[in-house]
Amino acid sequence: MITRPIIRLSFSYRSLSTHARSPTSIPAVLHLKTGQSFTGSSFGAPRSIFGETVFSTSITSYTESMTDPSYRGQILVFTTPLIGNYGVPHNIAPRDSRDVGVVLESSGIQCAAVVVADVAEKFSHYTAIESLHTWCSRYKVPGLTGVDTRAITRLLRDQGTTLGRVAVGDDAALPPPNENEYWDPSQENLVDQISTKEPYVLNPAGDVRIAVLDFGAKANIARALVRRGAAVTVLPWNYDFNVIRDKFDGLFLSNGPGDPQQCWSAAHKLRTTLDEWRKPIFGICMGHQIIGMAAGLDAYRMTFGNRGHNQPVLALASSGSIRAGRVYVTSQNHQYALRLQDPFPEGWEPFFINCNDSSVEGIKSTSDSNHRVWGVQFHPESAGGPLDTMEMFTDFVAECRAERLKARFAKASVDTGTILREKESAFNDVPELTAVAA
What we know:
ten-stranded mixed sheet; seven-stranded mixed barrel; alpha/beta; 29% strand
């Protein structure tokens, strides 16, 4: 008798948390530079846009993927049929020892457009405040629904990623663009567009100081460092870290969009850091490629890249929480990779390799190199994705903390030696007492 009203109230509350706002049905089409076209209807912003067409096999976390700065300039095709069913959360969080100002991976949508088989007209989640349609509208991002995303994915897998155009409304009735009309985002320095312009500090009360070179960092990278007690100083991608490096216990190089060849100036500066600095360095995705380029490896463009939350990698070496011979499932989003070569540059070794395509997924400094440097192509911070390699952040912060402790001991030893020398000098400067006859 008592439970029925409660159950009814529960379902009533659940229905209140489900919102509906159907997008206006406007014709839209995806044109690929390779000649294929896919016609559907528009949601989000009713505007046409060019970009690089890529696909992601992620089943969940569409909000995290769309706010990942690494997708800047890209038309993101989701292979999962239904997208938008749990809406979009309020994207503001505190800046404290637990968070970094946003809930998602950046303050807004980063991809140029989104393509889905079926966009959810209703959504339901206790944190959701708006639909995928209204969110895209607010950020002026067009969406395309009602197309066969699996067919698009097969095309991209067979012929590689290609440039594209999402044409909406009256533009959808026009012929496809000419080949020379397509915009190629890789020709621009996307990192410079997305990186912070001014340094800023997160969790200044942290007990270990880590500098982050921002090539387009996901928020969960900074969040992972902050939650492990680090004071994080975020720097522009081309900042000369060597000028201020002695203030820090470690250096982190973030992920980012586009072609790493656009960031050679950062690689040259890092080469100086590697030659003259011996504190821990860790890089992810673009940061990993910059480390590889500074070490003497080549970065190349892959056919269709790896994007999804289910990429297996094999560890070739042990380090911290990572054990050689074990396969880890990882989250990835990259079009470029470091070229595997034999021999590897002196002082370096492969760390991970992709189990599907044998691409290099990580490098590290060798134990006899007198360096502590790690780079991984995947995203150990997940968001979304598996947590198999999350402890790499714990390993890195522990190394930085050990470096700070080592520096303190060294300073204490120097200070103690200085005090002893000063006392000895003061004692030697005292004039000898002359015996006085009674």
